[in-house]
Design goal:
By secondary structure, the protein is an alpha+beta fold. Helices cover about 40% and strands about 30% of the residues. It is built from 4 helices and 5 strands.
Length: about 120
């Protein structure tokens, strides 16, 4: 396993890439690495009346990165998102949860609205 510093740097680079992807698609980045409600939100973005919560993963393959987000992680993410909504009065926004996975070759796999469509890996 790579040293923790390397893993953090790799994760931060993946989050920066995900932010660039979101911005190019018209999203406004509101927060990165927001902590609250017993979890952490990698990226919080908004567009119109949608508040987008993005989990970013770096793995051997993009599909493995997306599939690595299990039900427990989704539950923690949901709790953190609810805390964010409550603490900032964002109840008017529709919440959407996406997962963006990056393999070492850099080709992103993006799963949209994973709570509505089922497990992220599907």
């Amino acid at each position: 396993m790579p040293p923790l510093v390397d893993r953090r740097a790799i994760g931060a680079a993946a989050e920066r890439r995900a932010c660039r992807m979101l911005i190019l698609r018209g999203w406004r980045i509101c927060a990165r690495n927001w902590i609250g409600g017993g979890g952490e939100l990698d990226i919080v973005a908004s567009r119109w009346r949608t508040l987008l919560i993005v989990e970013v993963r770096q793995r051997v393959t993009g599909a493995a990165a997306v599939a690595s987000v299990d039900r427990a992680k989704l539950d923690r993410t949901m709790a953190a998102a609810q805390a964010l909504v409550r603490s900032h009065g964002l109840e008017r926004y529709r919440l959407r949860f996406d997962v963006i996975g990056f393999p070492p070759d850099g080709r992103a796999v993006w799963r949209c609205d994973v709570l509505r469509t089922g497990q992220p890996g599907r």
